[in-house]
Amino acid sequence: MLADVSEMEDLAAGAHGAVRGRLVVTASAMFGRMYVTPIVLEYLRRYPEAEVECRFADRIINLMDEGIDVAIRIGQLADSSYQAIPVGTVRRVVCASPSYLAEHGAPQTPEDLRQHVIVSSNGVSTSPDWRFTKGGATTIVRVQPRMTVMSNDEAIIAALDGFGITRVLSYMVAAPLSDGRLVEVLHGHETPTLPTWPSGSCAASARARNEGVKKQDYSRSGNSPLSLAAILIIRVISNTGDSYNTPPGAAMKLYYHPLSGHSHRARLFLSLLGAQHELVLVDLKKGEQKSPELLKLNRFGQVPVLQDGDTVVSDSNAILIYLAKSLGRSDWLPENPAAAAAVQRWLSVAAGEIARGPAAARLVTVFGAPIDADDAIRRAHAILTLVEQELATRTWLAADQATIADVALYSYISSAPEGNVDLSAYPHTRQWLARIEALPGFVEFQKTAIGLAA
């Protein structure tokens, strides 16, 4: 973004002197708020004599009649007489919250949507027909929404609340999909993409730039600094297109279940790292972890599994190590031999005492596992006593800062009350849990109202 701004600043200053005047920009309300406003603010800070009027609205605007300099539009243009060039695409995303999917399961085919609670947004389409393609074949499903709303914001709020499944445009849910608050469903069943267009008086100049016209050609074209500012907005949006329409498979995939502490361990670390990833829900109730597809990734038939291109990593602790090493995050996994050994010590505790203690106790209450609950609770208090003693003299388990050792132990200790393990006798441990929860990028482990947490 800054490179484009600097380039256009040089261009504008060289060709026309100081940038001044009024620019009128329009876009749909949500796209304008999320993507255009930050660019406009940067533009205004750079050019004190410039003015911008933003007209963000979810309606068709006549550019000529309303004096619009540049419009950012999504979808097919109704009037081909406008000058416009496509700069990217967005796609429709079908998604729901982890809590909804844990309760109702995920649809495996478009036809399964008929058995689910649907939240329909007229902001995307007023048609009840949802179209999908797979292997060249098109499937059209007529959904019967339980809730219909006028704006996409309302549909997203309902989905985040766990009410049902909704369909919105990809850029609208980029953040909740990235941090795991929403999960995309029906992978492999593509939805039609929509082109993103800048249109208006500046589109011809933008086309010229795309075709390699030199900087000085802009000055010969007679465009004002106002038009150059519009080109800047168009180009920055073009350059950032992938950020709001990342296609499936472009990021790491984490196969997970929201009630699995091992899954949360991996998901939490991905979020703390700010690593782009896609969450793929595995329905444990239906035994999807034993499906041929998942067994190809992990022959043990367990979640989580991380797929990073051609690399597949199973086992939650192995995933933590892989992420820290592959992303060069020595702050989370120190290179120093003594510090690395200290981290490994706690990874062993996570795989041993924690798994046989608080994790096992929770398996009894949440999943009905045939485990001796009293023995698991006894083991849980034994390891929690040792953890409490360690944290009485230090802030983090293995180093002066948080490491993957802390990530490895967090999920099952934080959810220990669900397995009837009382944490009230461990004040230092509870303070440590709060410190992890205060880390930037923290994502909560989905709670179950059971045991002492009921």
Task: Walk me through what this model shows.
This protein has 454 residues and is of the alpha/beta class. The chain is built from 16 helices and 15 strands. Strand 1, helix 2 and strand 2 form a beta-alpha-beta unit. The protein is globular and about 75 Å long. The N terminus is likely disordered.
Fourth-tier CATH superfamily name of the largest domain: Periplasmic binding protein-like II
Quote the CATH topology of the largest domain.
D-Maltodextrin-Binding Protein, domain 2
Question: How many individual domains?
Answer: 4
Rough outline: globular
Helix-strand category: alpha/beta
Please give the count of helices: 16
CATH class of the largest domain: Alpha Beta
| First-to-last CA distance | 49 Å
Total DSSP E strands: 15
Helix content: 40-55%
